[in-house]
Structure formats: structure tokens, C-alpha cells
Design a protein that fits this description.
Length: about 170
């Protein structure tokens, strides 16, 4: 192997790592809403995000809070702060992009941490989760970047017609 090949391979690894590190940590600035469509907010990269103004959360953040506390808090703890069963999503969501989140929740995941196997079950067949993946992502993203406080949001925006239509379509109603 030539030294040039080794240096080139090392450079490719460094570039891949730098790109991953550059997009890995989510922040309030990266999560900022730059576009709204039918009551749903999106960041500059087109990912779903939250909008919290004067203590009022958008519908999708509120819905995500409700869905999280319906299906996820049993393992991941109240307010996504973790438990002895599963990690704090307020931390892990800082480094999980939208596509990865969808994949993990839909397909599940096995990992070994500190010699202990951890299993995230697949929820791709559970309409009570699957139909609200964006809502869950939005809520957890808001919690991870410190935009949404602990507990039930005291004020929320009204449910957009688009959310009602999508919910009926997804749930089969």
C-alpha cells in the first residue's frame, strides 16, 4: 500500500467524521422554525420542528407530548428524562437526525451498552405511534434543545385541519 492511499483513506474517514460531527448536535438555532405549512413547522433543512411563542406550543408539539406520555414514557421516563429501562431522550435526541429517529421507532434497535443489552421494540405496526411519528419527533426535539419545559404544555395552538385530515387517513377513519 502506498503512503498516498493511506493518507487518502484517512482523509475520507476524517471528512466523514467531520460531516457527522457537524450535523450531530441539534441546537435551538438549528431547530428554529423557518417555514410553516398547514400549522406544521419546519427547520432550514426541511425537518419537522416546534414553534413555541409566549408559552404557547404549536399543535404538533402538544400532540407529541400527549403521544409520548401515552406510549413512550413507560420506558423512557416522564418528560423523556430516562429510566432504568431506557435512556433519556432529552440527551440522545440531540444527536439523532429525523431519518434515524423514524428508522429507530419504526424498526426498533438492539444495542449493548456497558455489557448490558438494550432493546428498543419496533413500533412500525402500532398506529398509535406510527401515525404520530412527526409529533413525537417534534416534541422530543423541543425537549432535547431545551425549548419545551417539563410537564404538560400550559397553552397550545388549535389543531390544524391538516392534522385532523392526516390523522383520519392514517388511522383508517
Amino acid at each position: 500500500m502506498s503512503p498516498g492511499f493511506i493518507i487518502s483513506a484517512f482523509a475520507v474517514v476524517l471528512i466523514a467524521f467531520a460531516n457527522t460531527a457537524a450535523r450531530a448536535q441539534d441546537t435551538k438555532e438549528k431547530a428554529a422554525s423557518v417555514m410553516e405549512e398547514d400549522g406544521k413547522h419546519f427547520d432550514a433543512e426541511g425537518n419537522p420542528t416546534f414553534n413555541i411563542e409566549n408559552g404557547v406550543v404549536d399543535w404538533y408539539t402538544f400532540s407529541g407530548y400527549r403521544r409520548y406520555h401515552s406510549d413512550c414514557h413507560v420506558c423512557h421516563g416522564p418528560d423523556a428524562l430516562g429510566s432504568s429501562y431506557a435512556p433519556a431522550l432529552t440527551e440522545s435526541m440531540k444527536n439523532i437526525d429525523y431519518g434515524t429517529f423514524l428508522s429507530i421507532v419504526a424498526e426498533g434497535r438492539k444495542s449493548t451498552v456497558g455489557g448490558r443489552e438494550s432493546i428498543m421494540p419496533a413500533f412500525g405496526d402500532n398506529k398509535n405511534v406510527y401515525c404520530y411519528l412527526d409529533d413525537l419527533y417534534i416534541y422530543l426535539r423541543a425537549r432535547a434543545v431545551g425549548a419545551a419545559p417539563r410537564g404538560r404544555p400550559p397553552k397550545r395552538a388549535d389543531k390544524p385541519e391538516a392534522a385532523t385530515a392526516y390523522e383520519a387517513s392514517c388511522m383508517g377513519g
